[in-house]
Design goal:
By secondary structure, the chain is an alpha+beta fold. The protein has eleven helices and ten strands. It folds into two domains: 118 residues, Phosphorylase Kinase, domain 1; 179 residues, Transferase(Phosphotransferase) domain 1 (Transferase(Phosphotransferase), domain 1). It is 38% helix and 15% strand. The strands form three sheets. Strands 1-2-3-5-4 form a five-stranded antiparallel sheet, with helices on both faces. The longest helix is centred in the middle third of the chain and has 20 residues.
Length: 304
């Protein structure tokens, strides 16, 4: 890809802006990333922000190239650690419902200006793009079951995802739901390293995402419940509109309505699963994804 074409697609501030302690331009970072990973035929998938996402070929097979740009200053170290943690997490699990990593995390620059790695290329669309899908009880059950399978791998390693939003879920052409982008994941045994508070995505946050809270596996369960509730009803269980402080207050104090209050025709056992996921108090939810899976497998939909 020529530099002029890269500049057209990166959309990263001014094209000559330099990043990282090595003062490398985005073009220089891109060229080193391509050389370090060996990808060819690279085209942008998700430009903008600190994480740039490209599609490419490796030995003739489609892959995803991810580049995390590191701003100068003390925040660079946290971003560097988070990027390496994301790759280490993906490398530690083997699940068709959690995106696979295909390389180690590679630092670009002697004092890194970026971190790059390769992931499997998933066909289909992000969940956010599937507004026209008919969300029946069966489809919502599949969503919950698939995501619980992926989350169970994370929770088994004492890791919480913390940003289970539509843009981080891919619905493949074969009908499989896959969790992506655990870049804000937190290891429960390493809070000093990874930090506690993570704002998440508005509309898809748990009460524990409010500043001062501490997300746990039950917080991921709440996020899964939001996805299921929204897909089945077309509405958020807790309204995220308006002032962010007011949204935080609603998350802390307001109990989500029962899903059958909006959609009376929802299967009773599925409704119980969604409602339990969305309990305001973590102790009233499923403890983690494994407990949710156990419940789902015992329902009529699970046995079908």
């Amino acid at each position: 890809m020529r530099r002029s074409r890269l500049r057209q697609h990166l959309i990263y501030g001014e094209v000559d802006k330099r990043v990282g302690k090595q003062e490398m331009t985005p073009d220089e970072i891109y060229e080193e990333a391509v050389a370090a990973t060996g990808v060819t035929d690279v085209t942008p998938l998700r430009p903008g922000g600190q994480k740039l996402v490209f599609r490419g070929l490796l030995a003739g097979n489609p892959v995803v190239l991810k580049i995390v740009l590191l701003d100068p200053g003390p925040v660079a170290q946290n971003a560097l650690i988070r990027a390496h943690r994301e790759v280490e997490l993906l490398a530690a699990v083997d699940s068709p419902h959690l995106v696979s990593v295909l390389s180690d995390a590679i630092d670009i620059g002697d004092e890194p200006s970026a971190v790059v790695w390769l992931e499997e290329h998933l066909d289909g669309n992000d969940l956010a793009l599937r507004n026209s899908m008919e969300w029946t009880d069966v489809n919502v059950f599949r969503l919950m079951h698939d995501l619980a399978l992926g989350l169970a791998q994370c929770h088994g390693l004492a890791v919480v995802h913390r940003d289970l939003s539509p843009g981080n879920v891919r619905h493949t052409a074969e009908g499989r739901f896959v969790i992506m982008d655990p870049g804000f994941a937190r290891h429960l045994d390493q809070t000093a390293l990874t930090g506690i508070h993570q704002p998440g995505t508005s509309g898809f946050r748990s009460p524990e995402h409010v500043p001062g809270g501490s997300p746990t596996a039950a917080s991921d369960v709440f996020g899964l419940g939001i996805l299921a509730f929204f897909c089945r009803t077309g509405q958020f269980p807790i309204d995220p509109d308006g002032d962010p402080a007011a949204y935080d207050f609603r998350l802390r104090s307001q109990q989500a309505p029962a899903v059958r209050a909006l959609k009376p025709d929802v299967d009773g056992e599925l409704a119980q699963a969604i409602d339990r996921c969305l309990q305001r108090q973590p102790a009233r939810r499923f403890f983690d994804a494994n407990e949710l899976l156990t419940y789902l497998d015992q329902t009529a939909l699970g046995r079908a």
